[in-house]
């Protein structure tokens, strides 16, 4: 039973600092409309399915051998995709950007060290940090005296950000642009100021960069001359390949040497490398859905505003919606109508991923009905 499992867990010689912790647990439920984990709802196009199958078939014969530990071809393709004159030796990849972040924190955080992030942000940043034994510091967003329904309450401001970095002197600082769950992208001036304020590592998590409004610059452009700056990306969102588990980062080549000290050898399987490369060779086709998702995101913002709710402006493939009196009741009511969205633990808010046009219409209809049930 659950109770005896809990009793056994209490007896197990678990690390003291892990006792009482809660694991990542976004619900994985079989419902018709799943808009809770910011995946790309569009299926992988047939042409790309074929390319992946061909690449994987070629590798299958050689699965008796360990994969290329340095995944050289994949790093070249990723550098090519990123542009900004990046070289393969500046790029590193792992099983999802979560694993990239874990490797970075194993190398640059760990016991006795401090990691700073600005809450609310991606919930895995503190979980991965404390998993390495580091101390997590919850930095804050917004300005003193902002109202609970102020759409700018989650903005980061240069002076306040720099001040918190100076006070906490973190070994690693996380920025997230566009930020999950608020959807806002950062000005590069803030990234530059944060970098200048720390002796530690600055990670800019750009998992959602491809969805940013056009002209939003990437922190990749700041890499030259900044050896402690790291920009992480993923193929789980815009590339519609969450199932492949392929995340990556770009930084000074010495950062990859630091990661090699902690990474498990052969961490990227031959199948993963082959699938990711085949996908990158067809990145134009794969990224075709990005424009649709951006306009659907804008439709969600406009439609929920008409329903009297308060969406945050978004540069991502999701929208943080404020203005709920009882967000938990609305979440449950949506679920009973077959629509799963995300309760991110912020009173008055829910987050929804922009799915296919049909899914978004189902969500918007269900939301209108749910507001009648559970205003
Ligand atoms: N960073 C952010 C901001 C995210 O929202 C996510 C996924 N929800 C990730 C990283 C991790 O994605 P993955 O491990 O699939 O690359």
Automatic annotation (TrEMBL):
It comes from the Bacteria. GO terms for molecular function: histidinol-phosphate transaminase activity. SUPFAM superfamilies: PLP-dependent transferases. CDD domains: AAT_like. Keywords: Amino-acid biosynthesis, Aminotransferase, Histidine biosynthesis, Pyridoxal phosphate, Transferase. Belongs to the class-II pyridoxal-phosphate-dependent aminotransferase family. Histidinol-phosphate aminotransferase subfamily. Homodimer. NCBIfam families: hisC, PRK03317.1. This is Histidinol-phosphate aminotransferase.
């Amino acid at each position: 039973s659950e109770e005896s499992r809990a009793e056994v867990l209490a007896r197990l010689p678990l690390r003291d600092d892990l006792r009482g912790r809660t694991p990542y647990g976004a619900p994985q439920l079989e419902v018709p409309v799943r808009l809770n984990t910011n995946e790309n709802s569009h299926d992988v196009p047939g042409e790309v399915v074929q390319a992946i199958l061909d690449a994987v078939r070629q590798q299958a014969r050689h699965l008796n051998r360990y994969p290329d530990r340095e995944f050289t071809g994949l790093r070249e393709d990723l550098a090519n995709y990123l542009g900004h004159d990046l070289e393969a030796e500046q790029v590193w990849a792992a099983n999802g950007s979560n694993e990239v972040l874990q490797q970075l924190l194993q190398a640059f955080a760990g016991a006795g060290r401090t990691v700073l992030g600005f809450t609310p942000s991606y919930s895995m940043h503190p979980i991965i940090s404390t998993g390495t034994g580091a101390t997590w510091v919850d930095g804050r967003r917004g300005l003193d005296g902002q109202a609970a329904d102020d759409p700018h309450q989650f903005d980061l401001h240069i002076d306040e950000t720099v001040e918190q970095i100076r006070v906490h002197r973190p070994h690693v600082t996380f920025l997230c642009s566009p930020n999950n769950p608020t959807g806002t992208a950062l000005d590069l001036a803030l990234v530059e100021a944060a970098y200048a304020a720390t002796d530690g590592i600055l990670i800019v998590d750009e998992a959602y960069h491809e969805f940013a409004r056009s002209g939003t610059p990437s922190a990749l452009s700041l890499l030259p001359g900044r050896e402690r700056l790291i920009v992480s990306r993923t193929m789980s969102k815009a590339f519609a390949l969450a199932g492949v588990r392929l995340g990556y980062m770009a930084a000074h080549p010495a950062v990859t040497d630091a990661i090699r000290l902690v990474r498990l050898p052969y961490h990227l399987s031959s199948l993963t490398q082959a699938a990711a490369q085949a996908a990158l060779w067809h990145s134009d086709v794969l990224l075709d859905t990005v424009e649709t998702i951006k306009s659907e995101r804008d439709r969600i913002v406009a439609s929920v505003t008409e329903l009297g709710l308060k969406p945050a402006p978004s540069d991502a493939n999701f929208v943080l919606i404020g203005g709920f009196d009882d967000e938990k009741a609305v979440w449950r009511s949506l679920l009973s109508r077959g629509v799963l969205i995300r309760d991110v633990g912020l009173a008055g808010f829910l987050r929804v991923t922009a799915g296919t046009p049909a899914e978004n219409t189902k969500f918007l209809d269900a939301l209108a009905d749910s507001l009648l049930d559970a205003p």
